[in-house]
Amino acid sequence: MWLRNITIVLTTAALVTASISTPISSDGTTDTRPVRRAHDVRKREENHKYFHEPGGDMNLGHYDARYFHEVVSDQERTDTQSHMIRAYLDFFREHNLDTWIAHGTLLGWWWNGKRLPWDYDLDTQVADATLHHLGEVYNQTKYQYASADGTVQREYLLDVNPWIWERERGDGANIIDARWIDTRNGLFVDITGLSEIHPDTHPGIWSCKNYHMYRTDELYPMRETMFEGVRAKVPYDYDKILIDEYQEKALIETNFNGHRWDTQLREWVQTEETRAKKEKERKEKEEAKEKEKLEQAKLD
Questions:
Q1: Which regions form coiled coils (predicted)?
Q2: 70 lies in a domain?
């Protein structure tokens, strides 16, 4: 049983209808118009991307730049993601907020109810009504988390993108609607909203800003399950959703990305080649740090 405290930070903007972060206009002044009209402001924004990462590759592209210090080890990423998703799912359940796991996180659940060990981030989805409620009520919530034995204590930030009211993709700069961020190292859970973009012409078709589309009967009724040891939800037709996104081989192949599926352990484990590569990288990193210390000592 996890013990938890919640500290909700409410800004003035959280008290009005357009409760999420107020856009800043190109002349540097605060734009006080409702966030629902964010798409009208976009043309005047030189840089309207809300979430920023320290780099664009597969590694650096999965940290929040505000909390990034250095690339974490595989062990720390595993520890961070395991506690982070537990805290996220517990928070949403306690506040009666509907959410479910998605994409690579859903694929990890399909294999053994856990995250994929090579995954750089975690993915969840919410309906657009829940997304708007997050922006109006829970944006900038700081969640204080502690394990039952008190040995693990973390703080997470729920940060909602002010462009959630714009449900079209646009230029792709704001396809992520919200993030649940570990403030120690910048790793996060990506949260994307699903909307019926064209309810008149395509009723019952839900999509996110990254063109993932689902029928209502593929999503609902949601299935109750367990993920990383806590209660979670997955879409009703999860097999079809996974096959549509990753093809059927994703549910069959037992060797992937330097890992093999151990049928006895029911775990993805690193191959011998991967372990040797990781050990070599670790030694090279240590040698580089030692060399840097020696060079600094010479300067001192």
A1: none
A2: yes
Whether residue 44 is contained in a domain is answered as: no
| Residues 106, 266: Cα–Cα separation, whole Å | 16
- 280 part of a folded domain: no
Stretch 128-143: mean pLDDT, rounded? 98
Q: Over 70: is that where the pLDDT of 27 sits?
A: no
Cα–Cα distance, 21 to 157 (Å, whole number): 14
Question: Is 33 part of any domain?
Answer: no
Of the pLDDT bands very low, low, confident and very high (cuts 50, 70, 90), residue 283 is confident
Residues shown for the chain: 300
- Domain residues for 195? 58-271
Where residue 47 falls among pLDDT bands split at 50, 70, 90? Answer: low
